[in-house]
Write a structure and sequence with these properties.
Length: 114
């Protein structure tokens, strides 16, 4: 499967997908960040594989390092930011009733995609 898609902040590739489950590998370039976003129909689990990050969940911001994981409930604002000098690599496991890329509500974005 391994469908890779480039984004202005880095890239992602789909490693596995079936009904109700999708697994991605995501790379964020140094100094870049994903949009502040939420999803109506899915929850996500993120595990940092390489690098360090600032992770936002709701109003809380925490530092994440290699092997640390976070859970993002449906409808919760979240963001990952590469706060280090090397590429940030993490695995995302999506679960829910709909896993399409269009299930994103953006609240803030460095690349004018809101």
């Amino acid at each position: 499967m391994n469908t890779r898609e480039d984004r202005p902040w880095g890239w992602f590739e789909i490693l596995f997908e079936e009904a109700g489950l999708k697994v991605k590998r995501i790379m964020v370039k140094p100094g870049k960040r994903l949009s502040l976003q939420s999803h109506e129909h899915r929850a996500e689990n993120w595990v940092v594989v390489q690098g360090q990050a600032l992770f936002t969940l709701g109003e809380e911001v925490v530092q994440l390092r290699k092997r640390q994981a976070v859970f993002i409930p449906e409808k919760t604002k979240h963001r990952m930011e590469n706060s280090g000098k090397e590429e940030l690599l993490f695995v995302e496991v999506q679960t829910g009733s709909y896993l399409g890329e269009d299930d994103i509500t953006r609240f803030q974005d460095d690349f004018d995609r809101c």
